[in-house]
Design a protein that fits this description.
alpha/beta, twelve-stranded mixed sheet, 12 helices, 33% helix, globular, binds iron/sulfur cluster
Length: 357
């Protein structure tokens, strides 16, 4: 936990590559008020395993990409080079994964829909309701909110989302055009309306975060962004912008010993069914299993490759080249002209991504 400064009912904290301004000292405590002691138990295990104090025999953090596509192609996201082909996770596969995760964790775990643009999946709410009914106590959606209509917002709340992470990255249309490319006023209205609906429904959940990836494109708008959103949502987060433009090339970096919590508690599965130990963009080099080959979440987490990553972090030596590149990934620097900058995709008819019949 970083430093905490108290001021005007908002708390400012600094963590690795993140600054936060929050209404709550610990937003998870709000969720615990709703979910009860089992949520606290999950958070205790999450924190302890993340610090390496306890060893898990099954992950408690599962990231699932339900659709390999995004309507935006932000210049600091790898999707600027590859927007995705629209592959969707099969419903039966999704349910099988959730069933396994619910059994493996006893529900004391998190499922994050945090890759691709999850709201492009029209069945997202059904998937969330399925996970919620299986007892998964933390369900996180990370979205650009372009499709967060009032109707979908209401359905997300009813389905049982515990955290809604909204990526905005700008305070004016001029900057939004550079950082994301859509219509900022629409996104802002969607988030404001979502907050109104949450209050109208008398729900404390989901906890809502608005985030801002800092770069030279938008740094001049950070203060105005914080002033606008910190009073409205549960917390605002500023994240350092990392250069992901060279993900395909791994360099033989030397690094100081460091710690990464992901291999100790996480598994990530993309829409094609590739199973990886973390949700870093570098994970494309760490495919440890495939759903199509019959691999399971528990099997990959307990398997040789993920165990070997844990050994490296525990012993602080022999770091995998992928992790070394992830560790030293440099801050992005734009040269807008030097980067491809796409406009928002004209959504294919009826919001369906390409490659889908
Ligand atoms: S690539 Fe390695 S260092 Fe980066 S998040 Fe994944 S496990 Fe951690």
């Amino acid at each position: 936990m970083g430093e905490v400064e108290s001021g005007a009912a908002l708390l400012r904290t600094r963590r690795h590559r993140q600054d936060r301004i929050s209404k709550h000292e610990d937003p998870n405590e709000i969720i615990a008020r709703v979910k009860g002691e089992r949520f606290r138990e999950y958070r205790r295990r999450f924190e302890a395993s993340g610090r390496g104090e306890i060893e898990l025999d099954y992950p408690l953090d599962l990231s699932i990409e339900t659709i390999d596509y995004c309507n935006y192609a932000c210049p600091y996201c790898p999707r600027v080079l590859d927007r995705g082909d629209g592959t969707r996770i099969d419903d039966a596969v999704f349910e099988r994964l959730v069933d396994e995760f619910a059994e493996g964790t006893g529900g004391l775990g998190a499922i994050g829909f945090d890759s691709g643009e999850p709201l492009l999946d029209k069945t997202l709410e059904r998937k969330i309701a399925y996970a919620s009914a299986k007892g998964i106590c933390d369900i996180i959606v990370t979205t650009n909110a372009a499709f967060l209509t009032p109707d979908r917002g209401r359905r997300l709340i009813e389905a049982g989302v515990t955290k809604l992470h909204v990526s905005i990255d700008a305070n004016t249309q001029e900057t939004y055009t550079k950082t994301r490319g859509g219509v900022l006023a629409d996104v802002e209205n969607n988030v404001r309306e979502f907050m109104r609906i949450r209050a109208e429904m008398g729900s404390l959940l989901p906890i809502v975060r608005c985030s801002f990836v800092k770069s030279e494109l938008n740094a001049h708008e950070m203060e105005a962004f914080a002033e606008k959103w910190a009073p409205l949502v549960d917390y605002v987060e500023f994240q350092d912008c990392i250069d992901h433009s060279r993900l395909d090339t791994l360099y033989d970096y030397e690094v100081e010993p460091f710690w990464c919590h992901y291999p100790f508690q996480s598994v990530s599965i993309n829409a094609k069914g590739e199973i990886r130990p973390c949700c870093s963009f570098y994970n494309q080099h760490l495919v440890f299993g495939r759903v199509s080959d019959g691999d399971t979440i528990g099997g990959v987490f307990g398997g040789k490759q993920q165990a070997e990553l844990r050994r490296q972090f525990r012993e602080k030596r022999d770091f995998d080249i992928v992790c070394r590149n992830c560790r030293v990934a440099p801050p992005a620097s734009f040269g807008i002209e030097s980067r491809p900058l796409l406009q928002p995709a004209a959504l294919p008819a009826k919001g369906k991504p390409p490659g889908r019949k």
